[in-house]
Amino acid sequence: MTPALLLPAALAALAALLLPLLIHLARRSEQRPTDFAALRWLRQKLKPRHRVRFDEWPLLVARLLLLALLAVWLAKPVLFGSAGEAPWVAVMPGIDAAQARAAIDDDKARLHWLAPGFPALDQPSPATAALPFASLLRQLDSELPAAVKLSVLVPEQLQGADAERPQLSRTVEWKVLAGAMPAPKPFAAGAQALTVRYAQDREDGLRYLRAAASAWRPSTTAAFAAAPTTQALPADTQHLVWLAPGPLPVAVADLIRRGGTALLSADTEYKFPASTTVYWRDEVGAPLVEGAALGRGRVLRFTRTFAPATIPQLLQPDFPRNLRNLFASPAPVPARVAARDYAPITGGMSYAQPPRDLRPWLALLIAALLLTERWLATRRVRGVSP
What we know:
This protein is an alpha/beta fold.
């Protein structure tokens, strides 16, 4: 362990040590000699020289130490190489804690969950939903000293793997134990319930949307809900078709930012981003629907009036499938892998370990010394306070 100062120029504050010295020297001038008449006739003698001395030296020492510690605190003292070199064991959630302890034969090993914050194994197992364990492995590898041995206990099946094996700066002991991380819910490719809001002169277009929604879920009557634009949107609306001219209401824009998808009429007034994506083209490649991301959701719009005269695709058999694709969420990337095939490889970059900041401990020492100085300065048995 090596102590160091990150801001050594702050030690110039040590010049303040002259202040308590001058105060204690000046205090001696408060004791002034008084001439008595009976002594005026005595033969004058040379006055002996007096040595410089300080009264109340415990108080002086306390003040000097207090100023010196303040100067050191301003210099930002740190300690390099203070991290322990005991072996580190990271346990993947999905493994029983007792099983993990039984697999480690080193009593000095530090056992932690491979989860954000790296909680101790004594704490309950963290949730395993969407756990970025590959990123956590890289973070742990960068924070541990190079001499620390790292072991990782993983279940047989991992969920949430990256596209490639983690590359670390050290060789990791990769132990596969019985168990598996919970599998994600099956992906539903179809769109959810479709909500439609329309102006009075656009009611004719509802038949095409209703027919498409019925093709999605023939046995479900709640897959389609249409109403005039004057009716408020349901709180659980996720997929909306807005067939009305004029400015887009604030409630619809908020729905999109929260994660919903809205398909707007061509004459709906809304300021689209400069770059848009074409989501649906006709037979000759001309765009029918374009859109862009907005917040956590998407905003789409027809490039033509929603009617068979301008969009003949409304009458084609594949219109329900094309409309469903506009609202369908993208399929999740496969992220389940066998643990034995995901062992980390070496060759990653190593990082210098951050030093330990000593200022919090120094602040406690300064506070204790300040209380001591105040007690020495205000106690009753002392003389005139300097």
